[in-house]
Structures are given as C-alpha cells and as structure tokens.
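Message: A physicist's question: would you kindly supply an amino acid chain plus fold tokens?
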Amino acid sequence: MSKYISIGFWLLIAVYLFVVLGFVGGKQKKALCTSINVVLKDTLKHHFVEKDKLIQIIDSDEGKVLGKTLDEINVSELEKVIINLPYIKTAEVFKSINGELNIEIEQRNPIIRIINENNLGFYIDNEGELMPLSKNISLRLPVANGHIKFMPDFNSSVNIFSNEYKNDEDAKVLRELSILANFINANKFWQAQIQQIYLNKDNEYELVPLVGTQIILIGKIDNYQDKFRNLEATYKKGFLYKGWNKYRKINLKYHNQVICEKK
C-alpha cells in the first residue's frame, strides 16, 4: 500500500508542477516587455558598448521591442543582431516574467592598434578579430605601423586566423603582429617598455621603446621569444652600467647575438 501512496504522491507533484509551469509560461507569453536591461559580463576597464546606444539598436523604429508581448520577441534574432556589432564577442538574450528583456554581453579585448600604409586605423583583439577604431574611447595600446597593407572590410567579421586568410600574405603580417602584441601584453616588463612596432620595407620588425631613443631591430618573427630574452638581459645588465642613450640601434636579427650600434 505504501508503494502506491508514494507513486500517487509523486504523480500529484508532477501534475502540480505541470500546471504551475504552464500557468507561469502562459503568463510570461502575455506579459508586455516593459524594460531592457543590459549587463556587461566582462571586467574590461574600457566600455566600447554604450548601453543606451545598444538599447536604441534593439528598440529601433523598424523593430520595436518595448510594448510587445514577450512571446512576440524573437530572442535568437536579437542575439544575431547584437553579435554582429564589431565590439561584441558574445551575447545572450533572455526574458523575465516581470516583462524585462535581459541582454548579457561580453566585449572584445583589443591588444594592438594598427595603422596601415593607407593610414587606416583598426584594432586586433586577443583572438585575431579585427575591430574598427572607436570614436568614444582612446586605448593605451602598442601601435603598429609601416608597410602594413591589409585593408579590412568591416561590413562582415574578419578574423585573421580563419581559413579564409590562411594564404593571405597581408593577413600573415597581422597574425605576426598579433603574436608579438599578445607576448608584450602578457609581460609587465615589456608592457612598460614597448610602445610601437614598425614593419620596415624589408618586412622586418622594429620596436620603438618608451625609454631611450634607440631602434630595436628584431628582424623576422622567428625565435622572437629568444630575441626578447636577449633584449631583456641587455636592458637589465648592459644598459644599467652604460646608460640608455649611448646606442642608436640594437640588432637582434642574428641567433643569440645582440649587436649594439653607437650613436
């Protein structure tokens, strides 16, 4: 008998939950969207995304959201609209029973500013995605310029590590700059030292430091970690005794060699 009582009890619970959830779901479908709540999930100090402007995009004249029933709002379509914005990495849209539309977004994290040979500026983020410059904020990032030819089209997503650009020589330069920028940004010492990367006419990389007037020639990107290690040793040992401004060029092109040219 106790077995049947137990089964009956759980059947009643299941029926109750079915009725309650059905009631809640029906109530949510009929509820009007009364507000839009935007939450930034990332911890970045910069804010590319202005909440008011994002709400204007979501609640535009062509596609009003406020005042619609929650059932009428296509969450998937809204997520597609938001994720296509150049500064947004991820977007999640969900509805609350109280009539609130919630939007949780994560911004892209730029690591270097590029100025190509046509004087067009853009960012590369930490995953290789290209981003247009923002009119709202100015970031303190390493700058890369010189003989950089790549011309991005911001009408669609551009990721320099995608198969589409695998054999693109101009995109290869951006991939190498991305590798160097990630390395610099991951090291506090180099963050404080390097302000600019220049691609010269021989397709070799030069570094411009914040302290001192010398040019640092690292050549090709091969063995770049060893080259930075040798440069750090030169900074911390050699320059400590001979001074920063005695040399005009530091050449790291050759394997395990640091050649300093005097002024």
User: Anything to note?
Assistant: The chain has two domains: 31-107, 110-262.
